[in-house]
Amino acid sequence: MSKELIVEWTSIYKTGIDFIDVQHKRLFDEITKLKKLEQNSRETNREVYRILNFLEEYIIIHFSEEEAYMDKIGYDDIISHKSIHSNFIKEFDTLKNRLDSDGNYNPVQLFFFLIKWLQQHIAIEDQKYVNYQSIGK
Ligand SMILES: [Fe+2]
């Protein structure tokens, strides 16, 4: 990957598994909304709060459906992939709780944290089970 962050959803993030691509794109779209918000306004805080609540639920749904898929194809590294997911859920919850108690969100900082994680995860970790499935066991 180049050093420049490509922040839009592009075909390089495609796994070729339709429901997973739809969910990844939804995550991208929702996270990208953060980038467009102004800093330090009451309106922004409300919107960030809404986005984080959405992500909190959607990430859990996405991870569990992806894990069911990995299980279905018999992916041999599923345990380490699951632990990456659960570590991220913990990290996300810690971050969200801290922000909820501060009540003051920095949307751009949050955007970069989340989009970097998602891009790297899709490009590196998700690609591993995609390769496993297409190249064979
Ligand atoms: Fe994943």
What's the average pLDDT? 90
What CATH architecture do you see?
A: Up-down Bundle
- CATH class placement: Mainly Alpha
User: Which spans of ≥5 residues are poorly predicted at pLDDT below 50?
Assistant: none
Total beta strand runs: 0
The succession of helices and strands, N to C, reads HHHH
The largest sheet, given as strand count, sense and whether it forms a barrel, is: none
Percent range of helical residues: over 70%
Distance between the termini: 26 Å
Q: Which small molecules are bound?
A: fe (ii) ion
CATH superfamily: Hemerythrin-like
Q: Provide a count of the helices.
A: 4
Looking at CATH, which topology would you report? Four Helix Bundle (Hemerythrin (Met), subunit A)
Gyration radius from CA atoms, angstroms: 16 Å
Portion in strands: under 5%
The coarse silhouette is elongated
Structure explained in plain terms:
The chain has one domain (16-135): Hemerythrin-like (Four Helix Bundle (Hemerythrin (Met), subunit A)). It has four helices and no strands. Helix content is 76%, strand content 0%. The protein is an all-alpha fold and 137 residues long. The chain binds fe (ii) ion. Fe (ii) ion binds at residues 66, 81, 85, 121, 125-126. Residues 15-130 form the Hemerythrin-like domain. One of its GO terms (molecular function) is metal ion binding.
Write a compact overview of the structure shown.
Residues 15-130 form the Hemerythrin-like domain. The chain has helices at 18-35, 42-73, 78-102, 107-135.
Helix-strand blueprint:
Blueprint: H1 18-35, H2 42-73, H3 78-102, H4 107-135
Helix pairs in contact: 1-2, 1-4, 2-3
The protein binds fe (ii) ion.
